Amino acid sequence: MGYWCTLHLFDEKKFYKEIVPTLKGETGDLTADCQEFLKSHVTGSTLHLSKQELEKLVNETIGNIVSISNSFDKTFKINSEHQKIGDYNDQINFLNKSDIHYDFCKFFEFYIFKTCADFFPHLPLGKGGVMRQFKLSPETLSYSIIGELDDWNPSFHYDGMGITNWLTHEDLQYLYLDKENLKHDDDSLAEDFFLLLEVAHTNQLGFITGVDMRENILELLPNNKTVKPEIWTLENSSELIWKR
Questions:
Q1: Cystine design at 10: which of 24, 61, 84, 117 (Cβ 3.0–4.6 Å)?
Q2: pLDDT digits (tens, 9 = 90+) for 61-112
Q3: Which of 4, 228, 14 is nearest to 111 (CA)?
Q4: What is the dihedral of CA 216, 222, 226, 229, to 10 degrees?
């Protein structure tokens, strides 16, 4: 079986300013968000749990999230604990056996799309990433930036499901300035990538990618967090997904 990759708008500034400190337990409170997350994450929901059982589960889950989050560097991409495991394949094999990693990845996916990324509209990339939509020379800046975006970070997906990586607004600006090197064969998917790139550039946003995420959960979260809904009324898109 294959996998399904998608590209979304991402408020990277809010992520680093507000979300990361909350994930690290420095500010805010994850209790309500964790309770909401667990309703769909726990088999059979959490309705069968007593008040004490639910409180214990929430506290344990938050404790694990905060612990893992504090293992990341300032980019929140490099996890010092995961790097001790070995190479990429060793990390994947180890992390795919960890229930704590599974819970973290699923909560991270839920929390990001609840707070600083929009699930809709998104660009379906199918079984490939952004790179395959273009004819890129390895010598170009675009090749380097998109290559990083397409590089799956094992810290955020479990068994090939979850958030795979993101692009900061700064890197997106460089990509925007180098967009003449994003050559393609009149492909509508590539054209809609340019549409998202323009919107992200104008609104000081980044990109975030995911694979086989829990669409049935994410589609219920509030949209229009990154840009106002009226911005899309003037746009003509054939490939962007607006609803399931």
A1: 117
A2: 999 999 999 999 999 999 988 888 878 888 888 888 889 999 999 999 999 9
A3: 14
A4: 100
